[in-house]
Amino acid sequence: xxxxxxxxxxxxxxxxxxxxxxxxxxxxxxxxxxxxxxxxxxxxxxxxxxxxxxxxxxxxxxxxxxxxxxxxxxxxxxxxxxxxxxxxxxxxxxxxxxxxxxxxxxxxxxxxxxxxxxxxxxxxxxxxxxxxxxxxxxxxxxxxxxxxxxxxxxxxxxxxxxxxxxxxxxxxxxx
Length: 175
Fold this sequence. Notes:
Helices cover 25% and strands 14% of the residues. By secondary structure, the protein is of the alpha/beta class. It has one domain (52-174): TPP-binding domain (Rossmann fold). The longest helix is centred in the C-terminal third of the chain and has 21 residues, at 154-174. The protein is globular.
């Protein structure tokens, strides 16, 4: 069972349990040997707990298009997620992949940019409250699964969206 597939259970104050501390030996017999444990520090917001997730796909077109998607996530203080094709292109790390082979997310707002809506990705966002898609193909399956759809080339639309968001943020700060 992948994390995030089921909703978090409601706290039951009446239940009690016992914590049993187990001591794990330094050396565990077997053929597997741990050489090193490396904890990678991630930038930005945690994908699984983020209230806003921006995910990009192959529609980014190239590394420059991907940077625009990443800039949108940064502008919204959102976590940046991806689809398998974006990872395969080398635009982003595997740890950002959402879906069947990746992470499960359930943000308040999910924005899918330049992705088709393949089942393998969409199963990872089933808990999202509001879903938006930006794709230049009006017949893309992603539009059947989201609350709001924008039919446009993400490489042209996203920079305009970022500009409008920043204008709004500046007005909000000065008020």
